[in-house]
Every structure is written in C-alpha cells, then in structure tokens.
Design a protein that fits this description.
Keywords: Membrane, Transmembrane, Transmembrane helix. This is Tripartite tricarboxylate transporter TctB family protein. It holds the Pfam family TctB. By secondary structure, this protein is an all-alpha fold. The protein folds into two domains: about 60 residues; about 80 residues, no CATH class. Helix content is about 55%, strand content about 0%. The chain is built from five helices and no strands.
Length: about 200
C-alpha cells in the first residue's frame, strides 16, 4: 500500500464518451469568430445610405459656399477651383455609398433592426449639422472641422479622447494652412484662425 505509483498511472483518464474540444461542440463560438456564417460582412445598407446622404449634404454645402468667394479677375484657375474639386469628389463618394447600399440591400436576407447603426448614423448627421451651425456663428473652419472629425470618429466606434482631438486638430490646421497659404483661398475665420494671421 505504501508503494508509490508511477507518474504515468497517477493521471486520471478522461471518459471515452465525453467529446473533445473539437468534437460534438458545433454551437460553440470561439473568440473573434462570427456567430452567423451566412451574415454578409460590412456595414448595413441603412448605414451606407445615411453616410451617402451626409456626403451629398456636405458637397451641397461646399458648392453653396463657393458663391461667396470672389470672382477671379484673370482667366484661369480661380479661388473656387479647389472647393469645386473637393465638392465633386465628396459628391462622387456619396453616390458610391448609395450604390453600395443598393447592392447590400439586395443581398441582405435578415431584416432585423440594428440600433447601433442607427445611433452611429445619428451621430454622423449631428456632426454635419453641428459643423454648419458652428460656421454660421463664427467659430471658424478649424474648430468646426475638429467637431466634425471627433463626432464622426465617435459614430464609427472610436472613443472621443485626447488622441482623436489631437488628430482632428492637426488635420484641420493642415487643411486650413493648405487652402489659405498654398492656394490663397479664404476660409471661414474664427478665434483660432486669427492666430495664424
């Protein structure tokens, strides 16, 4: 009785009828796997359609602001050329989102309501409307663009923090300096824009 058993005999044998980690567990979802294999990847068609509407509204706002720019006295590229180009690109992106939404709607079989996508769409639209209002009250291009970037990132799931604010402010300042210094275009000025002369 006092004799010790070999180490290999001290291990308890598993029951033969119990399935292993890869047997008989067809309903187990490992981390990172999609629970519905047949579900299409990518955003829902409602989200793509909403983003397309937001892009078209942005393009319309850009083309509306072009009318306030001074007319170039010489023949050639005027101050409104860059804004026209940006507005056209944004409008094309909006139309592409509508095409993608139409295709996604045709292949989607599930009609379940996704409240997360609705919330994201509402945040993106609020960012666009907020930018227009900030420009109207004289907040300036940099602050309104920072607002648009931060809320759009929040709508796509990014937490609004120092990182998002720093990236948005850097991009807004670079775009402002490019248009005002390199292209000599007048953008809406506010308290921050006056610091750059």
């Amino acid at each position: 009785m006092g004799r010790r058993l070999p180490r290999c005999r001290r291990l308890r044998r598993l029951p033969e009828g119990r399935p292993g980690p890869r047997q008989g567990c067809s309903h187990v979802c490992w981390p990172g796997e999609v629970s519905e294999p047949g579900a299409p990847a990518g955003p829902r068609w409602q989200t793509q359609c909403g983003i397309g509407v937001a892009l078209l509204l942005t393009a319309a706002a850009l083309w509306f602001d072009i009318r306030n720019l001074p007319v170039s006295p010489a023949v050639g590229v005027g101050p409104s050329a860059a804004l026209k180009l940006v507005g056209a690109i944004v409008a094309i992106l909006g139309l592409c989102h509508f095409i993608g939404a139409w295709r996604a709607r045709k292949v989607r079989h599930s009609q379940a309501v996704d409240h997360g996508n609705r919330a994201s769409l509402a945040i993106v639209l609020a960012a666009l409307v907020g930018q227009i209002l900030l420009l109207e009250v004289g907040a300036g291009f940099i602050f309104s663009s920072l607002w648009l970037f931060a809320l759009t990132a929040r709508g796509f799931g990014e937490r609004v923090g120092p990182k998002s604010v720093a990236i948005g402010a850097t991009l807004a300042i670079l775009v402002y300096l490019f248009f005002t210094k390199a292209l000599s275009l007048a953008l809406p000025a506010g308290p921050l824009e006056r610091l750059f002369g």
